[in-house]
Amino acid sequence: MAPRYFVTGTDTEVGKTVATVQLIRLLNQQKIPTIGMKPAASGCLNSNGILINDDVVAHQNATPIAAPLALVSPYRFEPAISPHIAAREADIEIKLPHILSCAEQLSEHANTVVVEGAGGWFAPLSDTHTIADLAIALEAPVILVVGMRLGCINHAMLTAQAIKFAGLPIAGWIANQIDPHMSRYAENLAYLQTHLSAPFLAEIPHSSNALNSCLNIQAFETLKLRNN
Ligand SMILES: Nc1ncnc2c1ncn2[C@@H]1O[C@H](COP(=O)(O)OP(=O)(O)OP(=O)(O)O)[C@@H](O)[C@H]1O
Ligand SMILES: C[C@H](N)[C@H](N)CCCCCC(=O)O
Ligand SMILES: [Mg+2]
Fold it and tell me: What does it catalyze (predicted)?
């Protein structure tokens, strides 16, 4: 099975897509053919009957590897709402075995698959399953993106504890500077570096170019160490 990573975050809109895209670029740069996957994408644009999602497009723009849309994003919905509600309204059941099968087929296109969740760790996919269940089914080491803003320490600590409770390793965490005016940024970062018992992969600075940038080589070295 090709290696996989599952990217989760402290909330929705914290930079999971930015981090995923930067990781896909880094791995490809390091000669590891890597593709992104967004199993459940709500908030799509209907273009002549094809549902287009910004996260999926951003993943695709970060890799030279092409794969069918039905594999990289099997469940897409128009409204920008929780996937469990979007799916119910569309009369579609999000099935974990189907997502698993898509991930396996993607492994034929790339060496590594980086899977971006939706919302945070316990965002629901149905009345019975959450993003956590999806990560568990994929058996993927988790990368936690912390959107650095007031309140993120609590969200980061809760999420890390829940990931560990799920029995999944945290391959690392990323500090994403979503709020350029965060008070005491360095002190918040230092607290998380001390208290999150997971490797610190990288800091993503606030930048209007964040979607076109790449994680630094240190993040790669840290991930590599975890894999060996
Ligand atoms: N480092 C950054 N610098 C500047 N803007 C950023 C940065 N990271 C994220 N953003 C912006 O914040 C917004 C949310 O980021 P992003 O779409 O990556 O979040 P997400 O966690 O993937 O959200 P979702 O749960 O919808 O998938 C976007 O407009 C993005 O461009
Ligand atoms: C549409 C949005 N951008 C995300 N993709 C979905 C966020 C779901 C959050 C669910 C929740 O935890 O309340
Ligand atoms: Mg996203």
Answer: (7R,8S)-7,8-diammoniononanoate + CO2 + ATP = (4R,5S)-dethiobiotin + ADP + phosphate + 3 H(+)
